[in-house]
Design goal:
Blueprint (H helix, E strand, L loop, with lengths): L13 E2 L5 H4 L16 H17 L15 E4 L10 E4 L7 E5 L15 H6 L8 H12 L4 E3 L1 H4 L5 H9 L1 H6 L3 E4 L21 E7 L4 E7 L18 H9 L2 E5 L4 E5 L3 E3 L18 H5 L11 H4 L7 H21 L14 H11 L3 E2 L2 E2 L3 H4 L2 E3 L23 E3 L16 E9 L9 E9 L1 E8 L12 E3 L4 E3 L13 E8 L1
Length: 505
């Protein structure tokens, strides 16, 4: 193929060898997928290279601190040579570095810690008794020279409600303060493992690369369309609700996928196949690293874009930054609510670590998934696809956490900063009582909200068109179209024509 006919390749289809002119001159980023399962010497060398690159070169990524207080319990994996069996250690304020495991339970974990087995776990946890994912997490921890490993099902007493409430309240901190998180990205459950045997690719089509001007020649390969690369939005791990805060709050993540290893930190994202982080919708929305897109410690969206800043005066900058920061929260909620939870009662606890991190940055007051300082805009949410999945009738009607399904907010605009809401209504009073005393960002028992605003009498007419087409369904009394009602539940749909009173903003 002539250089004059080449265009930049963003597709998964094209690969080349690293030292081939087709790679460095033709700008073909893709590499053949590895044949090893993540446990070869080369795999560990690459993981160490990614890790050292972050530790030595990234100014914004938090650095390991030997004075970090260990979680309540950790697994002591013993020396790197594996000469002793792991055991559960009560840290009692001990300090040091530890690795956390992010994994999908898959409905069942074969080995947990309970009140009855707690003492036994502190004596020994033989490696052969560990499920494959846990056992291989021990191997990786030892290979990286770290002594302690945190696994939720072993380090939290599973049949103790009090212990679970205490530990789930600080789970976000556990991942945030870890040296590294190992993510079992390709594992359906604890028995699948980190080191997954690779599916061999069908033979590729070889094309010649030539550049007469520079006297270069090489080869590139077109992957068979029958071979489907792992889509990160659909992996067993990346569809889970609890995992979102683990991924966002961890300073560094080494992911073991079905086809390859992945790396993610605040400043970089790598894959063994050399592709960009957002190939096949791996990234979120704006083409950035996932953590850069959603992490509160990353750059604010639009903050360096003159197109969006040109209409802002210097005095407007604080307001702009506030809207950009709030947009991050709303994007997190949208991403979070598109994921799955085994227990819907975890709706607020499973995002409480992210809420705690957001409050640390903003100082805002948290109210069951919404922030008091932006409450008027925060309650302007809708379910992307209305259903009858009411999670909790106890939670107030104004919080998105009471419903199952992806949530979108009025102020979100694809590719644009958060929209401003007009000030024609105001918050009068809001109050809430927590369901328990351990987690101020967890479930609430009851709440009250009072707002003041204009009311307008409208007529509702049902529409058969899709929501995305946004046909008007409410009209003024003289027939002028005003907007559309978005129902939370399918059963809420009004029949025929009704006159209703609406909050009008």
């Amino acid at each position: 193929m002539s250089d004059s006919h080449l265009t930049p390749f963003d597709s998964n289809a094209y690969t080349s060898k690293l030292d081939d002119p087709a790679a460095w001159h033709g700008k073909i980023e893709g590499r053949p997928l590895p044949l090893s399962s993540g446990n070869s010497e080369e795999d560990f060398k690459l993981a160490t290279k990614w890790l050292q690159g972050c530790l030595q070169n990234h100014a914004t990524c938090s650095k390991p601190n030997q004075e970090t207080t260990l979680p309540t319990r950790v697994i002591d994996v013993g020396p790197s040579n594996g000469s002793t069996e792991p055991y559960l250690l009560h840290s009692n304020g001990r300090r040091g570095l530890y690795i956390a495991l992010s994994h999908s339970w898959g409905g069942y974990v074969s080995l947990t810690t309970t009140v009855g087995t707690l003492h036994e776990r502190t004596r020994s946890i033989p490696c052969e008794s560990l499920p494959k994912t846990f056992r291989e997490a021990v191997i990786v921890t030892r290979q990286l020279g770290i002594r302690y490993l945190w696994i939720d099902s072993l380090c939290i007493v599973q049949d103790s409600k009090d212990d679970w409430e205490k530990e789930s309240a600080v789970m976000g901190d556990i991942y945030a303060l870890s040296f590294l998180t190992i993510a079992a990205r390709g594992a359906e459950n604890s028995t699948s493992g980190l080191f997954i045997e690779r599916e061999p690719e069908p033979s590729s089509c070889c094309l010649k690369y030539e550049c007469a001007e520079h006297s270069l020649s090489g080869f590139m390969y077109v992957r068979s369309p029958a071979f489907q690369l792992e889509r990160l939005r659909d992996t067993p791990l990346d569809t889970r609700g609890w995992v979102l805060q683990e991924r966002l709050l961890s300073p560094r993540i080494l992911c073991y996928g079905r086809h390859q290893l992945y790396w993610e930190c605040g400043e970089s994202a790598f894959r063994q196949d050399g592709k960009a982080a957002d190939v096949t919708n791996d990234g979120l929305r704006h083409g950035f690293n996932f953590k850069q897109d959603l992490s509160f410690n990353g750059p604010l969206l639009f903050s360096n874009n003159p197109v969006f800043l040109r209409d802002y005066q210097p005095s407007d900058l604080p307001q702009f930054e506030t809207r950009a920061r709030l947009l991050q929260w709303y994007n997190v909620v949208t991403e979070y609510t598109s994921r799955h939870l085994t227990y819907q009662s975890d709706k607020l606890p499973a995002i409480s670590g992210v809420a705690k991190a957001f409050r640390k940055i903003t100082g805002y007051t948290y109210l069951a998934g919404i922030w008091k300082e932006d409450l008027i805009a925060g309650i302007a949410w809708r379910v992307a696809t209305p259903s009858n999945d009411l999670i909790s009738p106890i939670l107030p009607s104004w919080t998105w956490a009471r419903l199952k399904g992806e949530i979108r907010f009025w102020g979100q605009r694809p590719g644009l900063p958060l929209a401003m809401i007009d000030g024609s209504c105001e918050l009068i009073q809001v109050a809430r009582n927590l369901a328990g005393g351990h987690n101020p960002y967890g479930d609430i028992r009851d709440a009250e909200l009072r707002i003041r605003g204009r009311l307008i009498e409208v007529t509702y007419r049902a529409s058969q068109k899709p929501v995305d087409e946004f046909p008007s369904t409410i009209f003024s009394t003289n027939g002028v179209p005003i907007g559309r009602i978005h129902f939370d539940l399918q059963s809420s749909t009004l029949q025929n024509t009704h006159t209703v009173r609406m909050w009008y903003e």
